[in-house]
Specification:
This protein has a 28-stranded parallel sheet that branches. The chain is elongated. About 10% of the residues lie in helices and about 35% in strands. It has three helices and 28 strands. It has a domain at about 65-170 and about 185-435: Single-stranded right-handed beta-helix, Pectin lyase-like (Pectate Lyase C-like), CATH 2.160.20. Mean pLDDT is about 80; it is low at about 1-30, about 440-465, about 470-480, about 485-500, about 510-520 and about 525-545. The chain is mainly beta and about 550 residues long.
């Protein structure tokens, strides 16, 4: 009997050891790549995904959380009741619906895992308000509600997921600024992983502790007619965060939050953002890229027919400098976007979170084939178009077509000559209207005035003598008279006085006005001044005066 017990104990120890060893080997070493799921056919393509999902399907069974003990008072912990209702929905062999009726239900962290036994659509109908526990210590993972391993899942209704994140925002950890060690993110309201053919429609997400909606490792996923709100100063409350997913469509959605309205990071492909209103927030972003090893490329992103209002950024691609990990973003199209008082309207930043004079190594991320088409509105920055690409991997195929920005309300009172654009390590192609003017591949420099300017020549003059314009010929230094010298045949002494060019020089009176005077000089004096003669016109010469007197006496 004792031997049997010892054998059982040894067996258990061996099983635990082998399990721990396998987990260690599975997690040992860096993750080289992370493959995206193979979504297969999009079963909702061409369908009206906004149709009323409240209509029960024939034979559909309802699992109401209140039937499992949930209390709609907003104070009683109903986590176990939600878990029991979900377990019944997942294990059902017929069409089933998970229902949260009107009311306020308080629950903690939950896993709503699949797959479900019934081979068909599973509907989660949320008509009440689901409240997250406010105690951040109760959350062991980066999510509040994790929905994983599902095929053909629909979340619909008029209800709200309220993360009650106000108290947790004070202790949030900024993982973007932390470059070493692990970083614990605050839990997201809804975290979808490995969901294929999923739909989220009509519900609201407010005040999460972390992100609102996180979609990863999923395919054929649609988010439509959803309202996402959090205060402008709530940290790291991204609206919709997408990674390692294919064919994700976000449409007819309002997002106002404290971080990126929509963020697409590594492994996002074939993403469509359409008819979305963003603001407040940090705009619509791709990245940050180049922070982790083995990052998959972001490819095939279309953002169109959308509006941004008073966001810090508009359309942005961001990548880390100083990191050894490569990455890429290509085939990106931003079209028909309107902006209202957006600060950084169009920005490519491969010096993300680096000081102005960045001394880190250039980014290894490659950005190419990015189109900005028909982007217009008002801005609060004098440089609404700003591109700082990597010196090691310059941006390629950047195209601007019909860009038109005006000063917003904040800048109308400032005296700025015009909007500017800046390009570093990129040679964009410009087509159509370009306001601000196209930029060159160098840092922005202030523009010099084009009107001609006439400056005075710095020549000493008398107080009443006007300055000589630049357009008049300037005398060479060798032709100027030396100070203190007197020019010959000039009545007044000239020292440093200059006369206007081509002005006639004063001449000695001609013979018709004065009789000729003969002056015999042995040696030319240094200074010569002409005195007016007292001899009257027509007077006889001096040598004949004696003969004239004798004749008068006789």
């Amino acid at each position: 009997m004792i031997i049997t017990k010892r054998a059982t104990i040894y067996t258990l120890v061996l099983i635990i050891t082998l399990f721990a060893s396998s987990c260690y080997e599975a997690n040992a070493g860096p993750i080289k790549t992370r493959s995206k799921p193979i979504g297969g056919p999009d079963i909702h393509a061409g369908q009206d995904v906004e149709r009323d999902h409240h209509v029960l399907l024939p034979g559909e069974k309802i699992h109401n959380v209140m039937d499992f003990g949930a209390v709609p008072d907003g104070e009683t912990d109903s986590t176990q009741a939600f878990m029991d209702a979900w377990a019944a929905t997942r294990e059902s062999t017929v069409k089933s619906r998970f229902l949260v009726p009107p009311g306020r239900f308080l629950i903690g962290e939950m896993f709503l895992n699949g797959p479900c036994k019934f081979n068909g659509p599973i509907v989660m109908q949320i008509d009440g308000t689901v409240l997250a526990s406010t105690d951040i210590s109760e959350y062991m993972n980066e999510h509040w509600l994790r929905i994983e391993d599902h095929f053909d899942l629909k979340i619909t209704g008029v209800g709200t997921f309220d993360g009650q994140g106000h108290s947790s925002w004070k202790i949030v950890e900024d993982c973007d600024k932390k470059t070493q060690g692990s970083c614990v993110k605050n839990p997201a309201n809804l975290y979808f992983s490995n969901v294929t053919n999923g739909i989220v429609h009509g519900v609201k997400s407010v005040n999460p502790k972390g992100s609102h909606i996180f979609v990863t490792s999923s395919a054929n996923f649609r988010i439509t007619n959803v309202q996402i709100t959090a205060p402008e100063n709530s940290p790291n409350t991204d609206g919709i965060h997408i990674s390692h997913s294919d064919n994700v469509i976000v449409s007819k959605t309002f997002i106002g939050t404290g971080d990126d309205c929509i963020g697409m990071i590594q492994g996002s492909s074939n993403i469509v953002v359409e008819d979305v209103t963003c603001g407040p927030g940090h705009g619509i972003s791709i990245g940050s890229l180049g922070k982790e090893e083995g990052e998959a490329e972001v490819k095939g992103v279309h953002v169109r027919n959308s509006r941004l209002v008073r966001t810090t950024n508009g359309l942005r691609i961001k990548a880390w400098p100083g990191h050894k990990f490569p990455g890429a973003a290509s085939d990106v199209f931003f079209s028909n976007i309107t902006m209202e008082d957006v600060r950084n309207a169009i920005i490519i930043d491969q010096e993300y979170l680096c000081p102005k004079d960045c001394t880190k190594q250039p980014s290894l991320v490659k950005i190419k084939n990015v189109h900005f088409i028909d982007i217009r509105g008002t801005t609060t920055s004098a440089t609404p178009v700003n591109m700082k690409c990597s010196k090691l991997n310059p941006c390629e195929g950047i195209i601007f077509r019909d860009i038109n920005f005006q000063f917003g309300n904040t800048l109308k009172k400032l005296t700025i000559p015009q909007l500017n654009s800046s390009c570093i390590n990129v040679k964009p192609i410009f087509e159509g209207i370009q306001i601000p003017p196209p930029c060159l591949d160098l840092p922005l420099m202030p523009k010099l005035p084009t009107a001609p300017v006439t400056l005075p020549v710095p020549v000493p003059t008398k107080p009443n003598l006007p300055p000589v314009p630049v357009k008049l010929p300037v005398l060479k230094k060798s032709t100027l008279p030396k100070a203190g010298t007197t020019l010959k045949m000039v009545k007044t002494s000239v020292t440093t006085k200059l006369r206007a060019p081509k002005k006639p020089t004063p001449q000695v009176p001609t013979k018709s006005k004065l009789p000729s005077v003969h002056v015999a000089l042995k040696k030319a004096p240094k200074k010569l001044k002409l005195q007016n003669s007292r001899v009257k016109k027509g007077a006889p010469k001096a040598k004949n005066m004696r003969n004239i007197r004798k004749k008068r006496q006789h």
